[in-house]
Amino acid sequence: MSNIADLIEEYILRRLAEQQTGQVELRRTDIADEISCAPSQISYVLNTRFTHDKGFAVESRRGLGGFIRIVRVPLQNIIYEEMVSKIDEDTEFVEIKAMVRYLIQHQMISAREGALVIQTANCAYGTMKDNDRVKLLKSMFITLAEFS
Question: Considering the entire predicted model, what is its pTM?
């Protein structure tokens, strides 16, 4: 028999799968009644199994009108967000190349797109001020994310 955390996770995933929007709004009390568990156990599952790193965004409000809104975030959006957050004035060209290689290896961009990003970044490192280079690099990764 599964433990209670597994049951809560399965319940939430099943309810999420029923929605075509990729999001579901639930009430803690409804889940607790359905599974016969304490609301704190639901909070535990939300905090450990429905994290941003695992592709979920969770909004929770407690109280009488409380709810739990769970949204499935495409994992590649998270990857791009993480890459953009790592780009700053101290980011070296080698790190940008590694990011591009990762995107190519995971088929998030084509080799051709990767070559263009690397060539543009190479030029930016040789000719641009740090803050302008950072803006350009972030802009390129944000654009890639929007078109993937």
Answer: 0.61
